[in-house]
Amino acid sequence: MNKFIVFLLVILLTHTSYAQNIEVCKTCPTSTIKEAITKAKDFDTITIKKGTYKEYNIIINKPITIVGENYPVIDGELKGEIITITSDNVTVDGLFIINVGTSYTEDYAAIRVRKSKNFVIQNLVLEKLFFGIYIEKSNYGKVYHNKIIGDAVEEYNSGNGIQLWYSNYIEIEHNYVEHVRDGIYLEFSDNCLIKNNVSAENLRYGLHFMFSNDDIYQDNTFENNGAGVAVMFSKKIKMLNNTFKENWGTASYGMLLKEINDAEIIGNTFQENTIGINIEGSNRITYKNNNFINNGWAVKVRGACYTNSFLENNFLYNSFDISYNSKVNDNVFDRNYWSNYTGYDLNKDGIGDVPYRPVKLFSYIVNRTPETIILLRSLFIDIIDFSEKVSPVFTPDNLLDNNPLTKKATW
Amino acid sequence: MLKILKYSFYDLMRSRWSYVYFAFYLLLGIVLLFLNNDLSKAVITLMNVIIVLVPLIGTIFGVMYYYNSKEFTELLLAQPLKRSSIFLGQYLGVALSLSMSLILGLGIPFVFYGLFKSAAIWDFSLLLITGIFLTLIFTALAFNIALSNENKIKGFGYAILLWLFLAIIYDGIFLMTLIMFEDYPLDKVSLIGTMLNPIDLSRTLILLKLDISALLGYTGAVFKQFFGTSFGLIVSFSVLVIWVLLPVWRISVKSKKKDF
Amino acid sequence: MVSIQNLHKKFGKNQVLKGVDLSINDGGIFAVLGPNGSGKTTLIKSVLGMVIPNKGNIEVLGNNIKKNSDYRHKIDYLPQIANFPSNLKVKELIKMIKDLRKNTNEDERLIKLFKLEPFLDKKLGNLSGGTKQKVNIVLTFMFDSPLIILDEPTTGLDPISLIRLKDLIQAEKTKGKTILITSHIMSFVEEVSDEIVFLLEGKIYFKGTIQDLKTKTKQPDFEHAIASILSNNHA
Is this complex scored with an ipTM above 0.85? Predict the structure, then answer.
C-alpha cells in the first residue's frame, strides 16, 4: 500500500517537473499562440499575457492548458474559426475572443471541441461571434463561467452561444449568453447538467434541445428570448428551479414541450410569458411546485398529452390558467393554488370546498377567433364563463382541481 | 360656471349618497387589501369593479341629481346666469364629487397598505384615471338623457338601459360579430369596436397593463402596433377625451334649446 | 319696459301661446291672469328666457333677449315653486345667491321683516312651505332691479306675511319699478295691481285696468268680471 502511494507521488512529481510553462507576449521569445502550441509538450501550460493577438485557426492538438492573464484579446479578424480543440485533457481559461468569421457553409465557432474528452473551458469572454462554444462528439467536459455576448440580428446568419452535438456527460454551469440565435443548444446529448446559466435576449430560443435524454436543467434563467425555450423529442429530463421570464410574442413561450416523455418539471417559475408552457404530445410529466405568474396562458395543452399531473403549483394572475383544444382530458390537476378561485373553505383545512375549473369557455373562443382576446375581462365574458362553469358544454367536464388550495402552495 | 360647480359640489359633498359611495369604496379597498393581503389580486378585482360599477353609479347618480335638483336649477335659471354654465357647472359638480369619493375611498386604504412603496402604484393610478374618465363620461351621458327626458321614470329607464347596453349587451353583439366574420381580418374592426364603447375602451387600457402577455400572443400587425407600443395608450386616452367632450358639448347645446 | 310681439310657443302638440302682443310700460304693477293652462307661466318664462319661443320677438328694456342674457341682471324673479337644494342652510342659500349675482345688504332688512332669523341655520329641506316662500321672497327682493316678476307670490303665506309682501310690493312700486305678477288670489290682484292682462287660450283677451274690465263685462266686482269672461267664452 505504502509503495503504491510512493509510486503515485513519484509519477505526479515527475509529471509536474516535466510540465513547462510557456509565456506568450508581444515582446516574449514566443509572440504568437500558434507558435507556443507548436513548442509545447504534453501537459505544458501556456500563459498568454495581456495584449491583442490577431490569430485564427488555432488548433490545440495536445493535452495542454492555456491560461490568459488579464484577459488577452484573440482577434480572429472575421477570417474563420478561432480555436479548435482536438485533443483530450485540454483546458482553456481566461481569454477574450472576438471577431469569429461568418460563413453560410461552415459553422465557425469561437472555440470548438471535436472528438475529445475531459476538456475544461472556463472564464472566457466571447464577442462578435458566429457560434460561441461548439462541442461535437466530445464527452466528460466542463463549460464554466463564460460570458457570450453576440450581436445577432437575423436568424439565418447567426449562430448559437453554446452548442452540444452528440456529446454526453457535459457540465455547463454559470455561463451568461445573450444576443445569439439559440443561447444553449443540445442535440443528441445525454446525461448533461445545465446549471445556473443565464440565457437572455436571444433571437430564437434561450435553450433549445432535441433528442437529448436524461439531462438535468437546474437554476437557470431564460429571459426575454425571441421564442423562449424549446424542448423536443427527449426522455427522462429534469427541469428544476429554472426561471422563464418575459417571453412575449405570437409564437413565444416560456417553454415549448413537444414529444417529451417521463420528465419532471419542478420548482420552476414562469412569469410574464405569452404562454407559460405550451405542451404537445407529451406524456407522463410531473409538474410540481411551479409558479405561473402573470402569463397570458399559464399552460396551453395542444393535444395528445396523457397522464400528466399538475400538483401543488401556484397559478397567479394569469389571463388564462389552462387552455385545451379538445374535450378529452387525461391529465390530473390536484392541490394547486389558483388566484382566480372564488370558492370557500368552510372547514378551514386550506382546501376549497368547491372544485375549480381551470379551463374557461372564453379560452376556447379565443382559440377559435383570436381577435376576441380584446374582450378579455368583459362582464359579458364573465357571464358566459360562469354559465359554462355551472354546466360545462365545451370544456372537458372532468377537468377539475378537486382540492384547490386556499393559500399559496409553499415548498 | 365655477361658482355653480362649487355649490353643486358642496351640495353633493353633504348628501348622504356621496358618503355611501365613498364608504363603499373604502370598505372595498379595505376588504381587498387587508383581508386578502394580495395586492395583485386586489388590483384585478378592483378593475372589474371599476369597469362595471363606476359607469352604473355615474349614470344613476347623474340622472338622480339632475331630477332632484330641478327646482334648484330653476332658481339658477331665474338668476342672470348663462344656461350652459349652469348645466356644465352642475355636471362637473356631480362628476367631481363622484371622482373624489372614488379616489379617496380607494386611495386611503391603498396608501395605508403602503402603495407608494409598491410596484403596483402604476396599475393603481391607471385604475383611478380610468375610473375618473368613466365617471366623467357616464355622468355626462346621464345628463344628456335627463335633459332629453322630462319624465323621471323614463329618464331612469333609459339610463339603466344605456348602462346595460354598454356594459354587457354591446360586448355580446361584438363577440357574435367577431365570431361570425372570423374568416376576415378582424384586428382593425375589433379595435374600432372597442373605441366605440367607453367601457370597452377603459377595459382595454387596463388590459394593456394587466394582460399584455396575452394580448401580444395575437398575430395581427395592427394589434401588435396598438398593444406593443405606446401608440395604444395614446390613442385610447385621446378617444376617452373625445368620449368626455362629445356628451359635454351636447349638454351645452341641448341646454340652450330647452324650455323650463 | 317689456315689449312682446307675435309670440308663439308650442309644447309638443300643445299650442300654448298663439301670437301674443303685449307691451308693458315703465312703472306700475301688472297682473297676468287667466285660467289654468292659459299660458301665464309660459309667458313669464319666455320673458325670462327660460322658455325659448317658437316665433316672435321679446324686448326687455330695449334689448332683444335672444341676443344676450345680460338683460336678466335687471330682473328679479320669484319662481312659483320654491324648492331649494335641501342640504343647504338658509344662510348659505342667501350667501350663494348673492355670490352668484352681486352683493347687497338688503337681505338683512328683509330677513327681519319676515322674521326669518330663527331659521337661518336650518336646512332648507326642513322648512315648511310658507317659510320657504318667505326665503324665496327675500331672495327676490334683495336685489334692486327695475323689473320684478312674481309668479304666485302669495303661496303658503300667513296673513301677516301677506300684508308685509303687499307693503313690499307697494314700496317697490313707489321707487318707480315695474312689477309683473301672476296670481290666483283675485282679492290680492285687485288690491295691488294697476293694470291687468287677461290671457285666454294663448291670446291676450283683455288688457287694461280693473275698472275697464268691470265696465266691459258689466259686472259690479272683479271676481264676477273674471268669472263672466270665463263662462261667456266657454258657453
Answer: yes
